[in-house]
User: Fold this.
Amino acid sequence: MMAQDAMLNFKLLSHHELDGFGNIGEGIAQQKTKDGRYILWMAHENKPKAFTAVDVTDPRKPKLIAQADLPGTNMRSNSCAVVGDLLAVAYQAYTPGQKPVGLEIYDISTPESPNFVDA
Assistant:
């Protein structure tokens, strides 16, 4: 089956503008909260945002619930992962040797208020 044939079985349910900050990379992860909601976490390819969280419990009415800025300039965060109530976000620099880069962990037990986990 060709990819375009597979798309015939899809139906667009909704769309969200993400407050004008699109540019989502390959980093997309889903969280099921303790209260049964489904949160879609997305990493951004370009500045100024690092990640966005959208409540997709009702896929016909997605709600933006959190956005975070990048910790520095001239960088991106196109990768993320969720494990339980933790969100890992990878930061990449455009210039070799630039800081900060690497991985940051956030407590997302309250998705509306992601908190950086300081080691």
User: Anything to note?
Assistant: The chain has one domain: 23-116. The helical segments are 3-6. The radius of gyration is 15 Å.
